[in-house]
């Protein structure tokens, strides 16, 4: 009964979707970009709207989408950030007291959970971090007790953490912001899941929870729909050919009544006998099919090459997510092209670090300061290492190039790079400068004052 009801609901939704598309004929500018064919969007199989559940299922079951999210989040969080007091230009080797207190709270374990929240935000339009504080109050109560510390965090998908109540007071400073969140816990040991109300003081959101927000995977969703058709359609075509379906063509003079009588069945049951014979043919290695007045031929369909169509949709998805296809699916052509793509992807992730992630980490630290987990600080910065930093092989190549420049410049009598510059380019510490030799005029009685005083030197020399 439930299955029939679900089928009826799906059919009703599909009919409604088609009706809206037909209405586009009267009102140009419907779902798709094709103004001439307003129903094309529905014919292509593209959804009218993309929900969180659809994005989650795409990440869970789609290999390309799964790889895109994990590669972007994985490279951005290849190393953890560092929160320092003051500006980046004021950074020093010695930690301040505030930086030590921050490091005690922002541990590698916490950054790992923050990275997981960032990955989940890429799947949905946002993700939530629920802060568990040692204040002894219920989750739906604001935080009032200070300096109790952070007991832990819970990372939540967008589908499990939703806005329960909005602040609609025009006089409030938080107008238009969530007044209360609702978290759907996962059921434990067969117990039904609970829905818990949480005060905004105990929640930090990564991403955008607005109704008009656009997720990371959403612009590429149509391309993923087409990719699934190509993958599934080509796989189905190969399966049909491998199944060795047969076609039996009876001669016009064949007597089906006598054939059914020879099998001892009625003529309406003759089809099942033929199916049993076909199954025996496909199952066995040495099987024989006896026909009378009939010819048997396999049903073989022409399978088109899926690669060109697949590549077109793959490039569309990669463009929507701003990830080179060679990075997403692996190196398939020249080494130089792959290296350039890797440099571009590194720069893309570095830019995401310095803008999007640094902004959210800065807001996260500000939230912890506001609720009393961290001590107040007027100015602080988020710094990362450089993903485009040269590898040891690249540094040695640069040092060799500098040495070659010196060799080429020997004809001019001028050394372009000194030894320490080359050592620094190779990734080594510069050598200490040699102490200058004493002048002859400074100490006339020294070893260099009289050549005769030098060891092994005589007046006869």
Topology:
Elements: H1 2-26, H2 40-43, H3 52-61, H4 63-76, E1 82-85, H5 97-105, H6 108-123, E2 126-133, E3 150-156, E4 161-166, E5 178-184, E6 195-198, E7 203-207, H7 221-242, E8 246-250, H8 256-263, H9 270-283, E9 294-298, H10 307-321, H11 325-329, H12 335-370, E10 380-383, H13 392-408, H14 419-425
Antiparallel strand pairs: 1-10, 2-3, 2-7, 4-5, 5-6, 8-9
Class computed from helices, strands and strand pairing:
alpha+beta
- Uncertain spans: 23-29, 451-461
Instruction: Give the terminus-to-terminus CA distance.
Output: 119 Å
The SSE order reads HHHHEHHEEEEEEHEHHEHHHEHH
Quick structural summary:
With 461 residues, this protein is α+β, with helices and mostly antiparallel strands. 44% of the residues lie in helices and 12% in strands. The strands form 4 sheets. It has a 3-stranded antiparallel β-sheet with strand order 3-2-7, covered by helices on one side. A 3-stranded antiparallel β-sheet has the order 4-5-6, with no helix packed on it.
């Amino acid at each position: 009964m439930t299955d029939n009801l679900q089928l009826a609901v799906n059919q009703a939704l599909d009919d409604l979707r088609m009706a809206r598309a037909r209405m586009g004929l009267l009102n140009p500018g419907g779902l798709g970009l094709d103004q001439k064919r307003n129903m094309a969007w529905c014919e292509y199989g593209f959804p009218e709207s993309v929900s969180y559940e659809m994005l989650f299922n795409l990440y869970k079951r789609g290999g390309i989408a799964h790889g895109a999210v994990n590669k972007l989040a994985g490279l951005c969080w290849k190393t953890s950030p560092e929160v320092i007091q003051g500006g980046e230009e004021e950074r020093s080797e010695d930690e301040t007291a505030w930086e030590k207190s921050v490091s005690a709270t922002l541990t590698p374990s916490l950054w790992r959970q923050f990275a997981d929240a960032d990955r989940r935000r890429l799947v949905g339009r946002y993700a939530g971090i629920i802060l568990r504080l040692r204040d002894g109050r219920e989750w739906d109560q604001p935080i009032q007790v200070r300096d109790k510390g952070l007991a832990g965090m819970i990372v939540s998908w967008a589908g499990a953490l939703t806005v329960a109540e909005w602040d609609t007071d025009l006089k409030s400073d938080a107008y238009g912001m969530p007044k209360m969140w609702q978290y759907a816990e996962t059921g434990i040991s067969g117990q039904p899941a609970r829905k818990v109300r949480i005060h905004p003081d105990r929640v930090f959101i990564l991403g955008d929870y607005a109704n008009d927000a656009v997720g990371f995977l959403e612009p590429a969703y149509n391309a993923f729909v087409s990719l699934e058709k190509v993958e599934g359609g080509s796989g189905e075509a190969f399966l049909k050919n491998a199944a060795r379906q047969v076609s039996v063509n009876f001669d016009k003079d064949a007597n089906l009544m006598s054939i059914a009588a020879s099998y001892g069945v009625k003529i309406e049951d003759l089809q099942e006998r033929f199916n049993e014979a076909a199954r025996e043919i496909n199952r066995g290695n040495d099987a024989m099919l006896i026909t009378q007045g009939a010819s048997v031929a396999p049903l073989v369909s022409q399978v088109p090459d899926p690669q060109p169509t697949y590549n077109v949709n793959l490039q569309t998805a990669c463009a929507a997510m701003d990830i080179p296809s060679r990075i997403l699916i692996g190196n398939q052509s020249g080494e130089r092209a792959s290296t350039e793509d890797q440099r571009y992807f590194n720069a893309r992730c570095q830019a995401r670090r310095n803008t999007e992630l640094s902004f959210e980490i800065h807001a996260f630290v500000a939230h912890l300061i506001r609720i009393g987990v961290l001590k107040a600080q007027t100015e602080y910065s988020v710094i990362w290492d450089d993903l485009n930093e040269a590898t040891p092989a690249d540094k040695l190549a640069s040092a060799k190039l500098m040495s070659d420049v010196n060799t080429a410049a020997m004809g001019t009598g001028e050394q372009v790079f000194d030894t320490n510059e080359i050592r620094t380019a190779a990734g080594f510490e510069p050598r200490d400068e040699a102490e200058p030799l004493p002048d002859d005029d400074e100490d006339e009685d020294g070893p260099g004052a009289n050549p005769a005083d030098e060891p092994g030197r005589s007046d006869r020399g």
